[in-house]
Write a structure and sequence with these properties.
Structural class: mainly alpha
Strand content: under 5%
Number of helices: 6
Number of strands: 0
Order of helices and strands: HHHHHH
Amino acid sequence: MFLASLDLFPFGFIGFWAAAAAVFALVVNIFFALAVYRDAYGHGSRVVFVSPAVWGAATFLGGVLVATAYWLMHHSTFRNPQHGPEAQQDVATDDASPDREAR
């Protein structure tokens, strides 16, 4: 019965597995895109380069490679926190610290 239903696919057995792989890739891209969007939205103004919606759309289209690039830019130890919005916030809080007056 199952093998008879494979006639619905243009290339039979190979077409079935190609369609299954495409559906799996689509589901994975949707989950990665949603996860990246939620994480980027949580970062607020500290998101690098583009808005959270663009990161989500790019991850949906680019898949795991774009999700990896997002992670490298925002969460890995490769990024340099001294050059970015976090560094500017740290400088602002350092000026108001009590140790600053003692210097």
